[in-house]
């Protein structure tokens, strides 16, 4: 299984037990240079030994490694003791025992294993847990690809291309749509703070999909789909792209309870607007389009409009070009300071009982 994000934990428990042994074999072979391995578990007659290895030390002595692999969602102290006992009972002489498990091992279970080994006068095994395995897999992207189909090299190349594309677009776009004379004039400092959109060459902007076929035809997008060309307004720039003021014509509102939880509302018929337990706050709905999703642009518009057109990839939130939509207090209507609503406190209020 491939995680939806590379930050998610790898699902070792979804691997077939023998395939898990294969991955462990590859990792030991990669991590331990010069080791010669034999995958005894693949023969079906492992006597409690999945992988056996020999490694020649600088002194010339040859160390024998015994490696046991356990693809389990959890493992107890007693199970660790049984692993050791089975290997010792096999009579196979060895210098090092490595236990590789697909889960975490608690400090308590490690202590149980340590006490058990000391009582039998044998060396304490080394343990590789799920955390070790994940770390080693990302060190060796080819093995990661074999195990989970995650092509880190391809992903890194794709990210580099996206970064370079975004940086080039940032340079071109900001040169074209920002009024640089205005932002350099000291007298405009307050305007830039109170109305960040004043930095742009105009207020309006057209957002168009790269594959849009409706613009200029008078034909609307099919019902149930997001418009692939629409007029909106510049709001500001941010570290990764450009911000746009959405729903500027009808405005947006937020209802908030006494605990600070809030929900955006978009229509005046929303029942929450009339409930005394909610505070109604005028808000700005702001969408963020990253530079890398802006494929190209027209600065001066066309025969239909005189404002800039941005041609974007509509592969963001809900089929839109935005990577994020957030809400900000509309200080023009509230007289406040224009603070952002806490994203962690956004909720959906249930219907009245």
% residues in beta strands? 15-25%
The gyration radius over C-alpha positions equals 30 Å
Largest sheet: 9 strands, mixed
Which of globular, elongated, flat, extended, rod-shaped describes the shape? elongated
Helix-residue proportion: 25-40%
* Content-based structural category: alpha+beta
The poorly predicted ranges are 1-6
What oligomerization state is this entry in?
single chain
The residue-averaged pLDDT reads 89
Describe this structure in words.
With 353 residues, the chain is of the alpha+beta class. Helix 2 packs parallel to helix 3. It contains 9 helices and 14 strands. A hairpin with a 2-residue loop joins strand 7 and strand 8. The N terminus is likely disordered. Strands 6, 7, 8, 9, 10, 11, 12, 13 and 14 form a 9-stranded mixed sheet that branches. The protein has a 5-stranded mixed sheet with strand order 1-2-3-4-5.
Provide a short characterization of the protein structure.
The protein is an alpha+beta fold and 353 residues long. It is 29% helix and 24% strand.
Which terms would index this structure?
alpha+beta; five-stranded mixed β-sheet; 353 residues; disordered N terminus; 9 helices; nine-stranded mixed β-sheet; 29% helix; elongated
């Amino acid at each position: 299984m491939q995680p939806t994000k590379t930050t998610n934990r790898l699902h070792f428990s979804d691997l077939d037990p023998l395939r898990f042994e294969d991955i462990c074999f590859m990792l030991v072979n990669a991590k331990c240079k010069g080791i010669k391995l034999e995958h005894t578990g693949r023969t079906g007659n492992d006597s409690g030994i999945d992988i056996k290895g020999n490694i020649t030390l600088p002194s010339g002595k040859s160390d024998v490694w015994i490696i046991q692999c356990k693809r389990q969602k959890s493992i107890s102290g007693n199970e660790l003791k049984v692993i050791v006992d089975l290997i010792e009972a096999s009579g196979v002489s060895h210098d090092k025992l490595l236990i590789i498990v697909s889960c975490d091992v608690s400090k308590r279970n490690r202590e149980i294993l340590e006490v058990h080994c000391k009582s039998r006068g044998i060396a304490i095994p080394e343990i590789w847990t799920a955390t070790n395995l994940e770390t080693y897999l990302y060190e060796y992207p080819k093995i990661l690809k074999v195990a989970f189909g995650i092509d880190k090299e391809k992903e890194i190349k794709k990210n580099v291309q996206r970064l370079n594309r975004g940086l080039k677009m940032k340079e071109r776009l900001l040169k074209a749509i920002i009024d640089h004379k205005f932002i350099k004039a000291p007298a405009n400092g307050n305007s830039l703070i109170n109305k960040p959109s004043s930095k742009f060459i105009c207020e309006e902007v057209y957002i168009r999909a790269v594959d849009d076929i409706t613009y200029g035809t008078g034909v609307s997008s099919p019902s149930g789909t997001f418009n692939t060309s629409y007029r909106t307004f510049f709001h500001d720039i941010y570290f990764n792209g450009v911000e746009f003021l959405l729903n500027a014509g009808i405005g947006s509102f937020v209802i908030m309870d006494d605990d600070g939880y809030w929900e955006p509302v978009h229509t005046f018929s929303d029942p929450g607007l009339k409930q005394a337990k909610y505070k109604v706050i005028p808000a700005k709905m702001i969408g963020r389009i990253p530079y890398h999703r802006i494929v190209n642009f027209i600065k001066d518009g066309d025969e239909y409009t005189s404002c800039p057109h941005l041609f974007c990839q509509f592969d963001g939130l809900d089929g839109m070009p935005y990577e994020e939509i957030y809400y900000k207090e509309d200080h023009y209507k509230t007289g406040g300071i224009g603070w952002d609503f806490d994203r962690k406190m956004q909720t959906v209020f249930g219907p009245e009982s």
